[in-house]
Amino acid sequence: MSAFLMPSLGADMEAGTLVEQLVSPGDRVKHGDVIAAVETQKGVIEVEIFQDGVLEDWLVDTGIKVPVGTPLAMIRSTSDSNAAGPDTPEPETPQPHDPKPASVPREDPAPQEPAPQRPSPESPMPEGPFPEIPMPEDRIEAGVAANYHRQHISPAARRLAAQTGVDLGRLGPSTDKPITRSDIAALTREHHSAQSDMRAAIAAAMSRSKRDIPHYYLCHTVDLTKAEAFITTENATRAPDERLLLGALYLKALARAVKKVPEMNGTFEEGHFHQSEAVHAGLAIALRSGGLVAPALFDADTQSLDDLMTSMRDLIARVRAGRYRARELSEATITLSSLGDRGVDQLYGVIYPPQVAIVGVGTPALRPWVEGKKVLPRLTATLTLAADHRVSDGRRGALFLTAIAKHLQRPETL
Amino acid sequence: MTEMSIDAALADELHRIAPDIELSEIDRTQDLREEFDIDSMDFLTLVTALGKRFDLDMPEADYPKMQSYDALLEYLRTRTS
């Protein structure tokens, strides 16, 4: 038996609200299944489970906000012997590889099972029987939760609500009519914290970054003529849903360059740098209603260009729809921020802690470029790097940026 | 395919991508991406959806003919007739 916990939601979020229980007690779950949705300052995030088993019971009701690390449900592992039938001979079998470190190997959760339901970060709850302390706000939240999860809410409405901090429970009892974005917008007008939650989350992470990380900055101009020509040629024979964008090439070039300068890729925590073998590239994605998120594209180094493009499309579509995975928010090892083709010349990023580097790509444009003794119009963009001086120096940073530029000169090898 | 349904289909697909922009608020002759505040990925998503809806290949070489709402509507009308 182990606990399924409220996952880490990135450096800037300490709590989340369980909004959907996608499996019922007694249901079988397997590694990778999305079993819950959690509402955060950055929208609704799908939460996956990383073990096989049977969901024993939910410990937290929908609509309840709990800190990261709180047990949300109990999972009976398929290797547990109790109640699993007589054909499971080895009760001592170690748990199958389980990346959730805080799994609670408690044999009998019964004595205090409802206790973790309403931990409050400010006031630690006493052990033992749950005292009847009046908690007006939580009561209200719990009360509306029953209506809330049955309502039909359009993704745009859910997204707006999450970003503006509107409590969906305030919409009242469920009706047949789906809740739309304009319903939420109406609430937003009377809701003073519009935008402020998302902004607060960004402010917290960026303040921490600027306070703790000694940034250094580099910039380098890259010729994108060949990369652009490669994409044009490739796309000429491709159906729209198989076409490439320059962004996929940036990602791939970055992932390759990391192999040469690995100290750009990893996390700095508790005074130590942990270099990551895998390249999980965070992609900065602006949200229509303001703010941005930088969820991870996993294993950017080992995916083919086409697979990377597919992953990127999928990720952006899910972010736009306001649904992405908890793992994607917490496990990026480096970030890429591209201004796209309607932006400005360059951007200097702020490192997303605990990462140690962020690469920016300015808007590509035709600019004068000297080749031999001639000045030619070439499609160029400015690459920038902000990196952590606790981990690397400008010389290594320069090697990293020029490596990205070199890979972009040979797009057919990406 | 009537013009009415092409118009409605285009409006529908744009609404999926940019639900916060009302068609009545934009200038249909101006740059589509700026009017709807959509990036290259959004535009590719739009082209993909329209291609599927109308069974068109929507080649990249034709993108210059899709630069405004009106131009894109005209393009779809011509290609589907």
TrEMBL record, chain A:
**Superkingdom, natural source:** Bacteria
Does the keyword section mention Acyltransferase?
yes
* MF-aspect GO terms: acetyltransferase activity; lipoic acid binding
Task: Give the UniProt keywords, A-Z.
Answer: Acyltransferase, Lipoyl, Pyruvate, Transferase
| Composition bias, Pro residues | 111-134
Q: What class of enzyme is it?
A: transferase
Output compositional bias ranges, type Basic and acidic residues: 95-109
Region annotated Disordered, chain positions: 76-136
- InterPro entries membership: 2-oxoA_DH_lipoyl-BS, 2-oxoacid_DH_actylTfrase, 2-oxoacid_DH_E2_comp, Biotin_lipoyl, CAT-like_dom_sf, E3-bd_dom_sf, Single_hybrid_motif
What GO cellular component entries does it have? cytoplasm
Concerning PROSITE patterns, the annotation shows:
BIOTINYL_LIPOYL (PS50968), LIPOYL (PS00189)
Name the cofactor(s) required for activity, per the record.
(R)-lipoate
Q: What is its EC number?
A: 2.3.1.-
Query: In this protein, which residues make up the domain named Lipoyl-binding?
Result: 1-76
Instruction: Family membership, please give it.
Output: Belongs to the 2-oxoacid dehydrogenase family.
* Self-association and partners: Forms a 24-polypeptide structural core with octahedral symmetry.
What protein name is recorded for this chain? Answer: Dihydrolipoamide acetyltransferase component of pyruvate dehydrogenase complex
Native source species = Roseovarius litorisediminis
From TrEMBL, chain B:
Signal peptide: which range, if any?
Answer: none
Q: Which residues form the Carrier domain?
A: 1-80
Which named protein is this? Acyl carrier protein
* Organism the protein comes from: Roseovarius litorisediminis
Entry superkingdom: Bacteria
Q: Which InterPro entries does the protein's record reference? A: ACP-like_sf, PP-bd_ACP
